[in-house]
TrEMBL record:
It comes from Candidatus Scatousia excrementipullorum. This is N-acetylmuramoyl-L-alanine amidase. One of its GO terms (biological process) is peptidoglycan catabolic process. InterPro entries: Ig-like_fold (IPR013783), MurNAc-LAA_cat (IPR002508), N-acetylmuramoyl_amidase_3 (IPR050695). Residues 333-445 form the MurNAc-LAA domain.
Length: 450
């Protein structure tokens, strides 16, 4: 009897392993305002799959993705695999009545200067009055005084010396009754530790600043009297950056620049502090793969293997999460900094919005924000592509929370597209995961050897 029940169970699993399943859209009756959407899911690859009578390719793993154009109104899609049938209704709303587009906000310049105080920690000081994109000059600390000479929409214009301005969100500051336009720099000193070169600038008040990567590395302290254009500038020769930070402690501005790490060419990772971040977790599942796999779980599988590989090669590895736990974005960055990590790698699976094509988009891409991290990203992507055969989906600069960390060389790896059947089949394959961990480790080693 037990053997009979076991045989029945095995047959049931075999029959259900390729049951027709749609993971996106998440419901069979949805509203999507886009030119197209897609049906993502799995089906028996041995059976013909059709959508409204059109044959759809099914990957040997069972995964499939199919782009569906959307017309205004209800769009009905009948998905058939063998004797299984699902019906999905996607409604595209009618376009809103076209009116005259709103005029862009104009700059209003003040007749008299205004003064403000930063009220939120790490408030972005931007080069343009736009709350996104590659336009961050610095992140300002709470209680920093600012001088304003105008506004535009939801932003105030900030005076930066006598020849430059920046922008800060109105929600990040409060207007002050009074203030000072210029600060006094009393001098600076340098300190030396085994890991860092430290520069301490003594001022009588906090001022906005900019740290410009390059050779030389440039420190700019704005609104400082007795300096050209009211801007104090220090140029520091540097060939390669391995992480830095600039913050006020009281009214002293402290710049810490990580020294070139001692690298053993035979074991480059020995002693290097690295934080591995498995994206998402807890109630944040991330994207759902064609086969129903959750991105958060796949990320964690890769992270564990990568941590194991790096540790085996001598690195000091820490993980932002080692189980299915929710961790905030700022907590992840703070954790890496507390561990004094020189490298921060966040692992993710890619997805796309409606209107895009999950078949045409595939491969691995790596994001960075600060230029210091780009050579590391380039080295890692080169190894992933050459060792695993993944499509080179480029290294890209983007303003993502995990890569806006200057203390470490911070990158985010989109390992592959979970909504692309071929990519997703690789992402859930244990051997591919192991090869990818080895490729990333090789990429880091090659970067350190340069």
């Amino acid at each position: 009897m037990k053997r009979f029940l076991m045989v029945c169970f095995v047959l049931m699993v075999a029959q259900s392993a390729f049951a027709l399943d749609i993971v996106y859209p998440k419901k069979n009756n949805v509203v999507i305002n886009a030119k197209s959407s897609f049906l993502i899911g799995s089906a028996d690859p041995k059976k013909e799959l059709t959508v409204n009578g059109v044959k759809v390719d099914v990957h040997p793993s069972g995964g499939f993705a199919y782009v569906v154009p959307l017309n205004v109104g209800k769009n009905t899609f009948t998905i058939i695999s063998g004797k299984e049938k699902l019906i999905y209704d996607i409604t595209k709303p009618a376009p809103a009545a076209s009116g005259k587009p709103a005029a862009p906000a104009a700059i209003s310049e003040y007749e008299n200067l205004k003064y403000a105080i930063v009220v939120n920690e790490n408030s972005p000081l931007r080069s343009t009055a736009v709350s996104s994109g590659i336009n961050r000059i610095a992140h300002l600390q709470k209680n920093m005084p600012l001088v304003l000479d105008g506004e535009k929409g939801s932003f105030y214009r900030v005076i930066l010396g006598s020849m430059k301005t920046g922008w800060i969100a109105k929600s990040d500051v409060k207007i002050s009754d009074s203030g000072e336009s210029l600060a006094e720099l009393k001098g600076y000193e340098t300190l030396d530790t085994p890991e860092f070169n430290i520069y301490v600038f003594h001022l009588n008040t906090m001022v906005p600043f900019e740290l410009a990567e390059g050779n030389p590395f440039v420190v700019k302290l704005f609104n400082v009297e007795n300096n050209p254009e009211n801007t104090y500038e220090l140029k520091i020769p540097v060939q390669k950056l391995y992480g830095y930070s600039g913050r006020f402690s009281g009214t002293d501005f402290i710049l810490k620049m990580r020294k070139v790490p001692p690298v053993d060419k035979t074991s480059p990772l020995r002693g290097i502090n690295i934080t591995i971040d498995a994206g998402h977790g807890g109630n944040e599942s991330g994207a759902i793969g064609c086969l129903g796999n959750l991105e958060k779980n796949t990320n964690l599988e890769f992270a564990r293997l990568l941590a194991q590989e790096l540790s085996h090669r001598g690195a000091n590895v820490s993980m932002t999460r080692n189980d299915d736990t929710a961790v905030g974005l700022s907590e992840r960055v703070d954790f890496a900094n507390e561990e004094d990590s020189m490298i921060l790698i966040s692992l993710h699976g890619n997805a796309l919005p409606d209107g895009a094509d999950p078949i045409a988009n595939n491969g691995t891409e790596i994001y960075y924000y600060y230029n210091q991290a780009k050579p590391l990203a380039d080295s890692i992507l080169q190894e992933i592509v050459s060792q695993t055969g993944m499509n080179d989906h480029k290294v890209r600069q983007s303003s993502l929370a995990l890569v806006r960390n200057t203390n470490a060389l911070s990158i985010l790896i989109e390992l592959g597209y979970v909504i692309n059947p071929s990519d997703n089949a690789k992402l859930v394959d244990k051997e591919f995961q192991k090869k990818t961990a080895e490729a990333i480790s090789d990429g880091i080693e090659n970067f350190l050897k340069q």
